[in-house]
Every structure is written in structure tokens, then in C-alpha cells.
Design brief:
By secondary structure, the protein is an alpha/beta fold. The protein contains 26 helices and 19 strands. The strands form four sheets. The protein has a seven-stranded mixed sheet with strand order 7-6-8-9-11-10-15, sandwiched between helices. Strands 1-2-3-5-4 form a five-stranded parallel sheet, with helices on both faces. α5 crosses α13, α11 crosses α13 and α22 packs across α26. The chain binds thiamine diphosphate. The site of thiamine diphosphate has 24 residues, from loops.
Amino acid sequence: MGTLLETIHSPADLKRLNFAQMAELAEEIRDFLIQTLSKTGGHLGPNLGVVELTLALHTVFDTPQDKILFDVSHQSYIHKILTGRLDRFETIRQPGGLNGFMLRTESEHDAYGAGHAGTALSAALGMAVARDLAGGSEHVIAVAGDAAFTNGITFEAMNNIAAQTKRMIVVLNDNEWSIDRNVGAIARYFHKIVTNEHYQNLHASAKRIVEKIGGKTAVTLARRAEEAAKSMLWPSILFEEFGLEYFGPIDGHNLPLLVESFKFLKSANRPVLLHVLTQKGRGFQPALDKQKKFHGLGPYDPETGHTEPAGQPSYSEVFANTLAALAREDERIVAITAAMPSGTGLDLFRPQFPKRYFDVGIAEEHAVVFAAGMATRGFRPVCAIYSTFLQRGFDPIVHDVCLQKLPVLFCMDRAGLSGDDGPTHHGLFDISYLRAIPEIVLMAPKDEDELADMMKTAFELPGPSAIRYPRGAVVGVARKAAAQAIPLGKAEVLQDGSDVAILGLGTMMPLARELAVRLENEGYSAAVVNPRFVKPLDLEMLEKYSKRVAAFVTFEDHAKMGGFGSAVIEALQEMGSVVPVVRIGWPDQFIEHGKVDDLRAKHGVTVDEAQAQVLPLLARRQRPVLVASQGLESGVL
Ligand SMILES: Cc1ncc(C[n+]2csc(CCOP(=O)(O)OP(=O)(O)O)c2C)c(N)n1
């Protein structure tokens, strides 16, 4: 760690530095990030791009009084470092350590928590209006990436800002990238501003001013930089029409220019937007060469950027390759992503079917309605959206897709605990929010071969359906040459039994099998069932076992509240069964970040917990006893 960085314990320490020292500090921070994240993993590229921007913000503004909000907040690492968390920074994303996003409970400097995109402007406006009502004087600054402007909430906020407050600063951090290349008209519009000839001239002259004054006194430097900042004013019709005074675009790596721009904007008596151009991955060649990979990644070699190749393919890859195979046979199939082509695997589909692939930007709500529209015209749209981000699509799933019985398929990647990313990214609610909706079919495969079969099944259904599958590598089972549809609402009984029925949803099947072995070792007969369908449930199977067993056990990588186990309880109750159900799933609380196995152990999502709960229920049932005169008799309850 460099010497300057070690002296920064709070933003006050930063404010004592001159520009030359700040530039040195920026380089130290870059080295520190590259080294530290090489061990912990994290959002390297986005953070390398905002080093100077964050230094300038904390030089000019005073947190925690002033409020700085980062959209998504995956790019808030420098903010964390500068606000007293340097000594704990090596714990980022590690169990018990710093969260990878802003968290109000982590620091008083974290004005607003986030993890999903598009919230910064709305939340900042809320804070600005609260300040105005309370007669406060603090500044509120929303920092949002160019991709955040593909999101509806950002525009809904912009539509309100000028009418609601006179003082709010928006920083558009434009690096031309979302996780993949940013898409759509807004990306083109930003590009047009940046490549405009007039801007290029202004930019060159501003750069000359700042360069010329290098080595002069701080006062001269500040004055000239302010001149440069003001001269960068170049009206943007879009933002001006929304009532935001537009400044920029300015070089987001030029510290004096950034600092003077913020000082100047601080006194504005209108809402303002500063357009800042940054380079994602700046200072680390591997990240500049591979923008997508270094947006967010696990551990890597800090010299070369090399990462260990994954052994097994991921569920995302199997999904995308299966979709491509099915799309070859059925030209109605189209694929939709909301800014996640690599995360969902659809970047494997895109080159094969460029006309049947749609990246709509960070716009899940729109993605769902768009899919509904295509479905009305005979297409079979597939929305590949992570479980956590599909929460944004809830109303259109109800109102547009299910109510109209449209055959849209939702492929929910990252369903279940996400691990390192934490509560904003865990996919623990999709069963609860989907299974209450009429018409939808909801499936969860136990392995990758069944994922393919379920996709095939979905395309044969007349209405909406959803498949949930987890992050990461597949089980590694043998794959059939071609996917085969499975009967609707039919569970797969993997092993019959008479004392207990263990239902392991999706990839929780190994836990179900292990519990069965343990209970068999105790002398009980255990059925093991792969439910396949959360909706419709296999009522026949449930009824059969309800007449035989002393208990059901359900395993799910999902919140217990309203989840699969709850569905089983409801179904049993409706058929008049009083057989108890032991539900193993996540408790009714937000689960922190950490390693999946540690968190499962901590929160009782384990075979041990299931065993501890089910054994007393089974003990009430007498085991089979041999009665000499009558042969085998059992005292079944
Ligand atoms: C609602 C939602 N959908 C998808 C994502 C996944 N996601 C995380 S960061 C990101 C791209 C952000 O790009 P930008 O805002 O331009 O910031 P940059 O990383 O380029 O600095 C996306 C799509 C998300 N966080 N939230």
C-alpha cells in the first residue's frame, strides 16, 4: 500500500492534499484496487474508471452531511476507501466483511443502499425534496452510469426533478459500457454529444488551459480550471428539456477540472447534470482489453488478469445452447435480455440468431411487456432475466403476460442464494411472487439435462411459464442428444418409501438424497421426489404419500415464506391431510453476503436441520415389529 493512501482516514484528510498529491493518490488507489480485488474478486473495471471522479466529489462535498448516491453502487469502492473503510477493505465481499455495494448500515457516509440499477436519481430527488421541506442546506448528488439512463426509473425521476427541487446535482458517468456495450437510442445520443465537433474543440481548449497552468499556484490553477469548466457548457437538448442544466462533457480523469466543475455546480440554483467521460478499467490493461470480463469477476492474476478456467459449463451456457438448438427448429422463438447478454449466456445465442436477439437495456419491466407484445403476434419470446431483477417485472408478468395467457417463457438465472453479492442479488423470492399468479407454470430442474427438457416443455405450453435455475456450474450429468418434453405437473419419484417423503426442489436434490440415506440408516423408509413443478403441483403424488408417510420434508433454495414448502402445505391442507411438513429454506429475513455453504449452515438450510426436525416426527411412528403369531405388523399412525 502506498504512503499517501495510508494517511487517508476520512474525507477531511483528502481535502488537505494538493492536485499533484491527489494524482499520486489516484494511482495508489488503482494499484491497491488491482491487488486487493485480485484476491477477493469484485467490480474492478467500474471502480478503476471512477477514481478521480470520487476523489473530486469527496474533495468538494462533505459527507455525511452532503449525500452522494451511486446508482447500482458497484462503483462505490473508492468511496468506501475514502470514508474510513480502508483498513477493512480487504474483507470486501468476504464473509462478515464489507459489502460490495453501498449499505446504510455499513457507514454513515453511505447515504443510500443499492444493487439494482436506476434508483439513484429518484432516491436523490426524495432526499433533495426532504431537505427543502426541512429547510436544510446539504447537497445531494446522484452519480449514475450511462446504462442507468436506459432504465425507466431514471427517466421517471428526470420527469419530476425540475418540478420538485431547485437544488440537485446529477453526474452522468459515461464510459459507453453497461456490462456489455450500452445499447439503444440513449447510448447513441451520448455518443453523438461526445463526438460532436464543437465539443471536441471546446474539449481541446479546456485541456490546453489545464495543461498550461500545470506547475502554477493552486489559486491560479483553480481559477483557470473554473474557466475551463464553465467553457465546457454545451447545451444538450434532452436534459435541458427535462429542466436539468447540462454541463459537459468533461474529462472524468482530469482532477482539477472535476474539482472546479463541482465547486462551480455547488452554487447552482437549478438542478444540474454534469456529463463526465470516464474509461472503465483505466490503469489496468487486461481490464481495458476485456471490458465485459472485468466489469465484475472472481480472483485473477494481478499482473496478467488471467482467471482460472471454469471446469463444468454453467447453467447459463446450457440454457443458451439449448435455446439455440430449439430456435433452430422453431422460428417463432426469440430471446430477450435486459442488459445481461453475457450473464445470462445469451451472447452465445446472439451470433447465431442476430435478428431474433434483443438487448433492451436495463429495462426489465419493458422487457416483459415487449415480450408480451411479440407473443400476441405468434412469437415465442424468452425473457432471460435473473431472479432478483425479474422482481422489477412483477406487474407486467401479472397484467400483460399471465392475464392475457401469453406464451412467454421466463428463464430465471441466479435463482437461489447468490453468495458474495449479498441481499440485493439473492434470488430468494421468485417462487413466492410467481406462484400466486394464475396461468403460469413454474418449474425447477434438478440438473442441466432437465433444464433442457423443461425449456422444451415450456415451448409446447399454450401459456406463460418460468424456469428457475441457479448461478454457477451444472451438476455434470449425461445429456440426452435432444431435449424431451416432460408431462405437465408430474413429479419424478426417484425412490419410493413409506415413512417419510423428501421433496428436493431443483438443485436441492443432493440434500434430499443425503437426508434419505441418513434416515434409512435410522431404519426409516424414505421416498425421494424431484417435484419438477412448483406450479401446478403434482397433487396425485402428494395425496399418495399423504396417506402413507408420517412426515414430508421439502428442500428449496428460496425463502420459506410463500415458497415451495408453503405450496405443499397449502395443497395438503386443501386435501384434508394433517401430515406435518418440515420446510427447509431461507428464513424470513434478508440474508447477508457470504459463501453459500457458510450461509446455509448459519441459517439452517442444511440436512442436519432437516434431520433434527423430522426425526421427532418419525419417532412417533412405531417401526415395524415382528409379532410371532401374526407375522409382520406395524403400528403406523
Ligand atoms: C435492475 C438491474 N438490472 C440489471 C443489473 C445488472 N447490472 C449491474 S451493473 C450493470 C451495468 C451498469 O452500467 P453503468 O450504469 O453504465 O455503470 P458502469 O458499470 O459502466 O460504471 C448492470 C446491467 C442491475 N444491477 N440492476
